[in-house]
Design brief:
Order of helices and strands: HHHEHEHEHEHEHHHEHE
Pfam families: LCM
CATH topology: Rossmann fold
Number of helices: 11
Largest sheet: 7 strands, mixed
Protein name: S-adenosyl-L-methionine-dependent methyltransferase
GO molecular function: methyltransferase activity
Family: Belongs to the UPF0677 family.
Bound molecules: S-adenosylmethionine
Distance between the termini: 49 Å
EC number: 2.1.1.-
Length: 302
């Protein structure tokens, strides 16, 4: 069983606390990779899952799941992560290939292997921000595979609840050049004030022409869905109580904040993309995904 570490102390690695959620997403990406109608390919994902004692016996193919696609965790929830991965892959690559964006910043990067698996244009640098312990685990696994990144890659071990802008600058980030930012599966683990600070910091560090995508949960009361199949199966099958890891506070309207900071933002449900791609989760009763929104923003004014 996992999930026994303190919920967000800032020191836990992938073995417990919020760090273990990075393994959950990696397992979902592994399953997605091996689907015949895959929405995203991540050949590294199953290596992370196998390397950590917390997840070594989790499935990495849907065929290893007794009830297959009807399993709420490894069926529907994993497909959600697969869809999210594919959509955000497209967003980042579009930003890098369309214009002059050459800096990619992954906030709460976890076991995101985009630096290794996406075809970046020449001259790109990927900054990965997460806790030291998570980044160290990731490096050990990737080194063991002799994996080579497809862009320059810099890790920035820091706590995103604190002031992280200095650490990013020290790592070589250039505020004069446009950038693309991603906060995938991160903001609901941060206090509301830290989210507002983070969005403000991203904006301050972003030159005109920059882009940002992030995920939020807009539920008024997260506990409303405590008995939903996604939460209960995640708790029962792998011992992760997501509701215990999320911060239960009224969330800020970060998309509105961005509009006031010179960005134009559009807010989507994941189901919009399910319909677009013809596969992925659709709404269901007592749905833990009901409040999830994916926000895409572009900085259009200085
Ligand atoms: C659900 S995982 C998502 C990882 C990655 N973005 C992905 O989608 O694969 C959440 C990640 O956020 C990181 N995280 C949570 N709170 C953090 C904090 N205060 N500072 C830095 N990283 C944090 C965790 O360590 C974990 O790797």
């Amino acid at each position: 069983m996992v999930g026994t570490a303190p919920r967000n102390t800032g020191t836990e690695g992938v073995q417990g606390g919020v760090g273990v959620t990075a393994l959950l997403v990696a397992a979902a990406r592994a399953i997605e990779t091996h689907r015949h109608d895959s929405l995203a390919q991540d050949a590294y994902a199953e290596h992370f899952v196998r390397a950590a004692p917390a997840s070594a016996d989790w499935p990495v193919r849907i065929q290893q799941v007794l009830d297959g696609d009807t399993n709420p965790l490894w069926g529907r929830f994993a497909r959600y992560f697969g869809l999210r991965t594919g959509v955000l892959d497209d967003f980042l690559l579009k930003a890098a290939h369309a214009g002059s964006v050459r800096q990619i910043v992954l906030l709460g990067a976890g076991l995101d292997s985009r630096a290794y698996r996406l075809d970046w244009p020449p001259g790109c640098v990927v900054f990965e921000i997460d806790r030291d312990e998570v980044l160290t685990f990731k490096r050990t696994v990737l080194d063991g595979l002799s994996a080579a990144p497809k862009a320059a890659r810099t890790t920035v071990p820091t706590d995103l609840r604190a002031d992280w802008a200095g650490a990013l600058a020290d790592a070589g980030f250039d505020t004069r050049a446009p950038s693309v930012w991603l906060a995938e599966g991160l903001l609901f683990y941060l206090p509301a004030a830290a989210e507002t600070r983070l969005i403000g910091t991203v904006s301050r560090l972003s030159a005109e022409g920059s882009a940002l995508a992030y995920e939020v949960k807009l539920d008024k009361d997260l506990m409303e869905y405590r008995d939903s199949p996604l939460y209960t199966s995640t708790r029962h099958q792998i011992g992760i109580d997501l509701l215990d890891l999320f911060v239960h506070e009224p969330r800020p309207d970060s998309a509105a904040d961005l509009e006031g900071l010179g960005w134009s933002a559009s807010v989507h449900t994941p189901f919009d993309f399910t319909r677009l791609h013809g596969r992925g989760p659709l709404p269901e009763p007592n749905d833990a995904l009901a409040g999830n929104r994916w926000v895409f923003a572009n900085k259009t004014r200085p």
